[in-house]
Structure formats: C-alpha cells, structure tokens
Amino acid sequence: MSPLRFLGLVPLLAACMPAVASAAPAPNPIIGCPSLVNLRILLRQTKSDIPAAAALLGSDGTDHLGCTVLAREAVTALQEHLTLNGNAYDCLTLRSTSVCHWVVAGAVNLSEAPPKARGDKGRPTEKAAPEKAPAQEKARR
Q: Within 13 Å of residue 88, how many CA atoms lie on the same side as its CB?
C-alpha cells in the first residue's frame, strides 16, 4: 500500500475539524474575595490569569486570602462598581453572606436573571400596613 492513498482522507479530516474547534469554550470561573486588596494580590500572583487563580484556590497548601470560586447561582445583585488604575471591579451580593465579594468586572453577566431559590415559589409577599393619619393636636384653651 502506498502512503499516498491516505492523502484522500486529509480533506475529510479537515472538514471535521471546524466542528471540534467551534465548540464553546468553558467559561472562566468566578473568583471572589471579601477584600478588593486580596483579589488584587491574587490576580498579581497569577498575572491576571483567572483559570490559574482558580487552580491556586483549589490547592490546599496556599493561603487563599479569603478568596473563593463563586457559583453563578449564589450571585444576587451588583452592590458596587469601582475602577482602580484602569482595572474595573464589581462587588457582588451573594445569597450565603451579607458581605459582598469583589470580582473582576464582567465576570458575571447580571443581565441574566439569576435562578430563583426553591423556597421562594408561591410565598406571598407581606403587605405594608396602611399608614394612619397623624393625630390631630388638641386645641389649647
């Protein structure tokens, strides 16, 4: 068999390659820190490589500076936005804590509605009690 016979397979393999290459890349993990300083330190250590920062947070032998990989479902709202030295950061409100966590701006698309918690369905909202008219002062005689 001549090796030239396999050259006919090259166009067939090339036709299959774009389907493999066009697969959606995995989204970057969301790295959040309760302190903006700690987030900046972590990003400086990893040269702003988010997957490398997530890998660093996953290792047991390193100081995590309070930072963690956040789940998209835990994010409820954008609490604050800050630009510092040309870099933009967002502080996100999470379901599990009252402390917002700083992330690189744009790490979470907040235009998408976050999924509702399972316990929120069908819960009636409390209505505010109607305000009473202020008591009229008694006229002094």
A: 7
- Return all residues near 64 (Cβ < 8 A) that are at least 6 apart: 57
In a domain, 94, yes or no: yes
Answer yes or no: pTM beyond 0.90.
Answer: no
Q: What does the H/E/C string look like for 47-78?
A: CCCHHHHHHHHHCCCCCCCCCEEECHHHEEEE
Task: Dump pLDDT digits (tens) for 55-111.
Answer: 999 888 777 889 999 999 999 999 999 999 999 999 999 999 999 999 999 999 887
Q: Establish if 117 belongs to a structural domain.
A: no
- 133 in a domain, yes or no? no
Q: How many domains does the chain have?
A: 1
Distance, CA of 117 to CA of 77 (rounded, Å):
14
- How far apart (Å, rounded) are the C-alpha atoms in residues 110 and 25? 20
Range of the domain at 95: 24-107
CA distance 106 to 113: 15
